[in-house]
Amino acid sequence: MIQSKQYYLDIFKVDVPLLDAVIAEGLRSGGSYSDLYFENTSYGSLLLRDGAVTSGGCHIDYGVGVRVLSGEKTGYAYSESTLKADILACARAAAQIADGPSDVNPYGTRNPSRGEPNPAADRYPVKQNWREVPVAGFLPFLQALDANVRSRDNRIRKVIVNLAYSVSDILMYNSARELKYETRPMGSVSVSAIFQQDGALENKSTSRSFRCGAEMLSPALAEEMASDIVKGIDDRFAARRPEGGRMPVVMGAGASGILLHEAMGHAFEADFNRKGTSIFADKMGSRICPEGINIIDDGTLQGNRGAINFDDEGIPGQKTYMVEDGILTSYLHDRISAAHYGVKPTGNGRRESFRYAPLPRMRATYMESGSAKAADLIADVSKGIFVDEFSNGQVQIGEGDFTFYVKSGYMIENGRLTMPVKDINIIGNGPAALADIRGVADDLVVDPGAWTCGKEQSVPVSCGIPTVLIGNLTVGGQ
Amino acid sequence: MMDIKELNKTLEFALEKGAQQVRLTYSKSVMNLTGILNGEVDKTAYALDQSLQLQLFVDGRFGTFSSNRLEKEEIERFILSAIDTVRMLEPDQFRSLPEPGRLVKDALTGKELGLYDPSYEELTSARRKEMALGSSFWSRKEELENGFRVIAEEGEYSDSLFDSITIDSQGLYARHTETSFEIGYEATVEDAHGNHYSNFWWDAAPLLKDLKLGTCSKTAIERASAALFPLEIDSCRTNLIVDTECAGKLVTPLLNALGGFAVQQKNSFLADKLGKKIFPESLSIIDLPRVHGETGCRLFDSEGVATKDLPVIENGVVKTFFINTYIGHKMGVEPTIEDATRVKLMPVGECVTQEDLLREIGDGILVTGFNGGNSNAATGNFSYGIEGFLIRGGKKVHPVREMLITGDFISLWNNLVATAHDARPCMSKLIPTLAFKDVSFSA
Fold first, then answer.
1. A177, A212, A236: which is the final residue of a domain?
2. Which candidate among A249, A266, B94, B410 keeps its CA 20 to 30 Å from the CA of A398?
3. Cα–Cα distance list, B244 to B249, B294, B384, B433, B435 (Å)
4. B48 and B147 part of one domain
5. Whether residues B285 and B326 fall in one domain
C-alpha cells in the first residue's frame, strides 16, 4: 500500500530540509553514508480461547532509526520522538562510529526524486485496511473458525484462535537523497487444538500469514484452516518413534522449505560470508548441488509474507537466484556487503523495526520445481522417512550443521508410506545435504504459514520447496 | 519520562472514561552497545526506549494495550480508543485485578534488591570501547593456533538501565530498577581441510564490578577449537552429562508444563501431577526470586503480586503450578505466582566441578550445546540435536556431533544420578552440570 509522499511526511512531522539536516549531522564526523528509517506501526491482536474472544489489544510503536556507516562499520541510534532535536541527537550518537572530518559530499549529484515509489507496482495492495475495521468486525470470523474446527472431531478438547495484524507506515531517506515510503500490512491467523483419545493428548496447529488487508478473513480461509487442523490427527495418535539411524529422507512439498531457509539460506547471507564464518564463504561460482537445481530468495511474490516493495534500506524488492543449475551464483546482500563484494545490493537489507540496523535477511526462500514425480521419489526408497511437517529448525552457520524437529511424517518401506512417525529430529550438514539431493519433484509449494526468522532480530519470511529426496541424513529415533 | 503524578492522572483518566479497574506499567530503558569484529570496533548502538502498558477491565471485559507515544493528547486519544475496543470483546467473568492482600508492598524505590549499579551513570564511550576491546584475543590468536586458524572473532559489550513503575486502581505501587552489563564473544576457527567450527563465551552481571571481562574471546576460541576433528560414533544408550551452560534446556520444559495456562488448556504433560511424586527423591527445584544482587530476581510479577520463595519440585514431588489471578479464577484454585523467577536445581551428590562429575560417571557423552530439537508439551516427549564430547574413564576423549538424544522428560529426570555444584550466577536459572544414566543417543 503506497500513499502520497505528504502523508508520510505529515505522520512523522518532518520535511525534506530537516531530513537533509539530520543526514548532514550524521556525516559530520567522517561517515561515508547515512540513512534514516521512520516507522509508525499499529499492531492489533485478538485471542479466542474456551469458545470466546475474551482477550485483545492494540499496540503503537513509533520512532526513527539513524544509521551512519564508516566504511563497513556501523553506528546506530534511534529515537521514539521525531522532534528535530531528538533526531539530531540520534544522528550525533550514530556519528561516533567515525572519528575524522567528513570528506563526503552527502548528496552527490543524484536527483532527489530518483526512484520514488510506484503505486502501480505495489506488491501488497489492500482492499480493507486493518486500521479502519473496528475490532467487533473481526469477531464473527474467529467465532466461525472456532465452531468449524470443533464441529469436525469430537476428540477436540481445546481450541485457541489467534488473530494478529499490523500496519506500518515507513519513510526512508539517505545520503544519496533517495526518499522511499510505503505502508506495509500484515495479517496472521493461527489455530491450535488439543485432542484427547483414550487418555492420550495430542496438539496440532496451523497458521496463515499474508501481506494484505482484512479481506483475508474469508469463509474460505476458515474452511481451509479447520480442514488442516484435523487432517492427519488419526495418524498423529498412531505415530511412533522409528528406529533411528542414517537413511534417505523425502521432504514433503511446502513447509519442509524451512530446511532450505535454515540449513542453506542463512549460509548464503552475505554478512556471514563477508566475515568468513559461513561454510560457503569461498564457494562463489562453485558447484554446490547437482545440476538442474535452482534456489531462490524472492521478494516479489504478491501478498506473500516475505514480499517487499523495498527493503529497509530503500532497495527495490527483487528475485535473487542464489543457486542456478547447481552453481552458487549470488549471496544475499545489504548495502554494506554489496559494497564489500563490489556487486549491486539484492534488496535483502531488512530489520525488525526502527530499533535495529538492517542486516542481510531472507524474504521468501524456495527451490524451483524439478521434473520428477513425488510418488516416484518415494518409490525409490527401500527404507527411509517421509517428512510431512517440520518445526524448530536450527543451524550452525560456521559448521553448516542443522537439526529439525519432525512434527509428522511416515516411514518409507519398500517404496511405500507405512508407519506414521512423530517427535523425532533430523540432523545433517547443509552443504552435504545439498550435494546429496537425489531428486526434485514438479510440485513446488510456497508455504502460507506465519514463519518468522530470528537472526538477531525477528522479520517475517516464508519458505517453500517441492518434494525432494536427500540420500542420507541422520534420523533420531528410539 | 513520565512521573508518578502523570501516571496517576493517566489512570484516573481511564477510570473516568469507563474502565472499572486499570493497571498501568511505565517502563524506560537505555542501552549502549559496542561491537567488535576481528579486534576493531565494528558497530556502536544507542537506544532509549519508553512505553506505557495498560490493562483495562471494562464492563466485565479485558484488553491489553501499549504505546510509546507518550504526549498527553496522544495517550488520552489512545485510552479512549482502547476502552472502545475492550467493549467490543466478549465478557469474561474471570478477569480482575489480584486480591489486594497479594500485592507487593516493599518495592518502593526499585533498588531494594541491589540490582542497580550507580557506576553505570559514569560510564563513557571511551570506557565502553575499552571494555569491549579488552576482551578481544584477535591480536594474540597465534598463541592458541595449533592445527587450526582463527578466521573470525566477533564480540559485543553492552550495558543497560531498566526502570519500571506499575500502579493499579487498587493502590498498587511497585517499582523495579536494574542495571545490566554483558560481554560476549564468538569465534570461528578453520581446520586444515577448510571445515569451520564456531563457539562462544559470555558473562553478565547486574553490577559492573562482577562482570568477568578478561577472557571471553580466548575461551570462545578454545571452545571452538575443542570441537575440531569430531568423531562419528554409533547409536547407543549411555550416560548423558549436560554442561551447566546448556542444562537449563532440560528444565525449561518442566517449568512450562507447570504453567497455569498450559495446565488449564490441557497442553501439559504434568497437568494431573500436582502433589504427586513422579520424579526421584533427589530432584528438588526451588524458586528464589528475592536474593539480593542476583540476576533476574524480582520482588513482584507483572500483576504486581509479591514474589516469595517456592518449592517447585521437592524431593520428587510436584509442589507448585504457576497460577496468575485469571487462571486461578478460571480453574477455581488459589493463585500462586505468574511464573518462575530465579529457579535453582539443588545439587545432588558431592561433586563440585564438572571434572569431578565426569570422573564419578566414568563413561558417557558430555553435551556442551544443543542444536535444535523440540519437545511435545502435551506428551513430554523430546528430541534434541547435541554436540559435545565422548567421555571415557572420566576424561574427554573426542568431540562428537550430528547426534540426537530422544526420550520423555519424566523418564529422563528419573534417571538423574548426580550433579556438580557449578551453576553460573550470570544465568537466569541456576542449573548445575547434570548427569543422567541410560539415555538414547542416535547417530
1. A236
2. A249
3. 10, 17, 16, 4, 11
4. yes
5. yes
Residues B288, B369: one domain?
yes
Q: How many domains does chain A have?
A: 2
Q: How confident is the model at residue B281 (pLDDT cuts 50, 70, 90)?
A: very high
Whether residue B197 is found in the same domain as residue B293 = no
Distance CA A475, CA A433 (A): 13
Question: Is the same domain home to B215 and B284?
Answer: no
Please tell me the distance in Å from A444's CA to the nearest CA on chain B.
26
Domain that holds residue A351: 245-475
CB contact under 8 A, B376 and A276: no
Our CA dihedral for B229, B234, B236, B240, rounded to 10 degrees, sits at 10
Residues of chain A contacting B196 with CB distance shorter than 8 Å: 277-279, 398-400
Entry pTM: 0.90
Q: Render pLDDT for B125-147 as a digit per residue (tens, 0 to 9).
A: 999 999 999 999 999 999 899 88
Amino acid identity, position B305: V
Task: Clarify whether residues B308 and B260 are in a common domain.
Answer: yes
A52 lies within 8 A of chain B by CB: yes
Per the CB < 8 Å rule, is A54 touching B88? no
Shortest Cα–Cα distance, A78 to chain B (Å) = 6
Residues B211 and B248 in one domain: no
d(C-alpha B272, C-alpha B270), whole Å: 6
Of A76, A194, A476, the CB nearest to B442: A476
> Taking 70 as the threshold, does the pLDDT of residue A213 lie above it?
yes
Determine the pLDDT at residue B31. 94
Is B290 a member of any domain? yes
If asked whether residues A128 and A146 sit together in one domain, one would say yes
CATH number of the domain within which A211 lies? 3.30.2290.10
Residues A418-436 have pLDDT tens digits of 999 987 888 888 889 999 9
Give the distance from residue B215's alpha carbon to the nearest chain A alpha carbon, in angstroms: 21
Q: What is the DSSP string of A334-396?
A: -HHHHHHHTS---S-EE-SSTTS--EE--SEEEE---SB-HHHHHHT-SEEEEEEEEEEEEE-
Nearest 10 degrees: CA dihedral of B109, B110, B112, B116?
Answer: -120
pLDDT in tens, A283-338: 899 999 999 999 999 999 999 999 999 999 999 999 999 999 999 999 999 999 99
B-chain residues near A427 (CB < 8 A): 371-372, 385, 402-404
H-helix or E-strand containing B13? helix B4-16
Clarify whether residues A123 and A200 are in a common domain: yes
Answer yes or no: do A330 and A415 share one domain: yes
For cell 553448516, the residue is A400
Please state the domain count of chain B.
2
Q: Which of B226, B258, B275 is the last residue of a domain?
A: B226
Q: Are residues B17 and B155 part of one domain? A: yes
Contact B306, B300 (CB under 8 A): yes
* Residue A381, number of CB atoms within 10 A of its CB: 23
